[in-house]
UniProtKB/TrEMBL annotation:
<comment type="similarity">
    <text>Belongs to the methylenetetrahydrofolate reductase family.</text>
</comment>
<protein>
    <submittedName>
        <fullName>Methylenetetrahydrofolate reductase 1</fullName>
    </submittedName>
</protein>
């Protein structure tokens, strides 16, 4: 997806889309239709999330296989090592390779549901760096590897400087690029990115952006991730919270403004969390002059359903 020498600094907008594997067959069919349409906007890549502990393993691999093999989109598979023993990690990596996926986002993951704190499973991996090392040791350069970075520091880390050092170590261990936690404050992101560069983290750093689609989902995600939201945006959102369409409109305006400011600061690679929805993200891209340019391939119609061969 990226070379290790700053491909995100080229001065050309670069967008990617993130999806999660739906729980139902109908949800998957609907998502395939959306991915087919959204793929016409020419995203740099699409990413598929991984349920902590491997909860979505099969569906994640299947969706990745469809994105890569059916829709021809460069695909990034998230994989966590929380609550996963070595055999599960091996199965995940082998699944990615069989699905034709060449890109992995190597993550630790969060505590399994019901556990307040995260703890390493016996014989498992403690931190994302262990997964990066394991992938490199097992597959050499076969996979392009991304890791997560936190402009405001990771929620469990009291020391932002130490957090940055751990990020540097993940890159030194073999990560090719960094995807950031969601950005709502451009100044915070830009300052963190500068500190990354000063510390010798030279690989591309992609800004994570979630255009607000509904007040409830936004509040839930902010709570889950602990990201800071600037007061003025929070106040504007609170003022329209009862009006779904006004929330969406504000979400689009805010995301467009945020991305323009990122571009102004020389940050060209933006990773858009879609929540599996199409309209808001496509409106954002349209306003940025990056709407669909390719004709339909009709690929979605032939996409295999759950359990089917997708490669
Ligand atoms: P790590 O890099 O291991 O860091 C976790 C904590 O340990 C931090 O506090 C860090 O400071 C500390 N640390 C790191 N290295 C060391 C070390 N060597 N020694 C001691 N301490 C260390 N979760 C999912 O379940 N599925 C997903 O698909 C998913 N996608 C994500 C995508 C992005 C872009 C981001 C930002 C997060 C995503 N997450 C996902 C959430 C992620 O799993 C959690 O934030 C998790 O708590 C940390 O993962 P990590 O890979 O950053 O962990």
């Amino acid at each position: 997806l990226y070379d290790r020498h700053g491909a995100e600094d080229t001065g050309a907008p670069y967008y990617s889309f993130e999806f999660f594997p739906p729980k139902t067959e109908q949800g998957l069919t609907n998502l395939y239709d959306r991915i087919e349409r959204m793929g016409r906007a020419g995203p740099g890549f699409v990413a598929v999330t991984w349920g902590a502990g491997g909860a979505t393993a099969q569906r994640t691999v299947e969706l990745c296989g469809a994105c890569q093999g059916v829709f021809g989109l460069d695909t990034l598979m998230h994989v966590t090592c929380t609550n996963m023993d070595r055999a599960m990690v091996d199965a995940a990596l082998a699944g990615a390779k069989t699905a034709g996926v060449r890109n992995l986002l190597a993550l630790r993951g969060d505590a399994p549901r019901g556990d307040e704190y995260w703890a390493a499973r016996d014989g498992g991996f403690r931190h994302a760096i262990d997964l990066v090392k394991y992938i490199r040791a097992s597959y050499g350069d076969y996979f392009c590897i991304g890791v997560a970075g936190y402009p405001e520091g990771h929620s469990e880390s009291a020391d932002q400087d130490q957090d940055l050092e751990y990020l540097r170590e993940k890159v030194e261990a073999g990560a090719d690029f960094v995807v950031s936690q969601l950005v709502y404050d451009v100044d915070v992101f830009v300052a963190w990115r500068r500190r990354c560069r000063e510390r010798g983290i030279t690989v591309p750093i992609v800004a994570g952006v979630l255009p607000v689609q509904s007040y409830q989902s936004f509040c839930r995600l902010v709570h889950l991730t602990g990201v800071g939201v600037p007061d003025d945006f929070r106040r504007s959102l609170d003022a329209v919270r009862a009006n779904d369409q006004a929330v969406k409109d504000l979400g689009v305006r805010h995301a467009v403004d945020l991305i323009r400011r990122l571009h102004g600061a020389g940050v060209w690679a933006v990773h858009l969390t879609t929540l599996n929805l199409e309209t808001t993200v496509m409106r954002v891209l349209g306003e940025l002059g990056q709407g669909p340019t390719k004709p339909s391939t009709g690929a979605a119609a032939g996409t295999a359903g759950p359990g089917g061969a997708v490669a």
